[in-house]
Amino acid sequence: MSICWRKSSHSGGANDEHCVEVGRFARAIAVRDSKDPGGGHLIMSAAEFAALVVRAKHERRGDHAR
């Protein structure tokens, strides 16, 4: 199965150490390191991915409430 990967709009240029890509399966979301596309990926449900995004936004703002 071929996945169409999209690079995060928050990933920077060539020297950015924190580059991620997301891909969609029929019923899941995959996340991988764009600097190491052959290194594997995480697969999660759409709900788990949404929770991850919310958590990342809170962490970025410094809101560490769980």
Entry keywords:
alpha+beta, four-stranded antiparallel beta sheet, 1 helix, 24% helix
Short description:
The protein is of the alpha+beta class. It is built from 1 helix and 4 strands; from the N terminus they run E-E-E-E-H.
Could you give the topology of this structure?
Elements: E1 5-7, E2 20-24, E3 29-33, E4 42-44, H1 46-61
Please provide a written account of the structure.
- The protein has 66 residues and is α+β, with helices and mostly antiparallel strands.
- The protein has one domain (5-61).
- It is built from 1 helix and 4 strands; from the N terminus they run E-E-E-E-H.
- The chain has one helix spanning 46-61; strands at residues 5-7, 20-24, 29-33, 42-44.
- Strands 1-2-3-4 form a 4-stranded antiparallel beta sheet.
- The N and C termini lie far apart (36 Å).
- The model has no long low-confidence stretch (mean pLDDT 83).
- Residues 5-57 form the DUF397 domain.
- Pfam families: DUF397 (PF04149).
Straight-line N-to-C gap: 36 Å
| Main sheet specs | 4 strands, antiparallel
The structural domain count equals 1
User: What class do helices, strands and sheet pairing give?
Assistant: alpha+beta
Pfam families: DUF397
InterPro entries: DUF397 (IPR007278)
Domain DUF397: 5-57
Protein name: DUF397 domain-containing protein
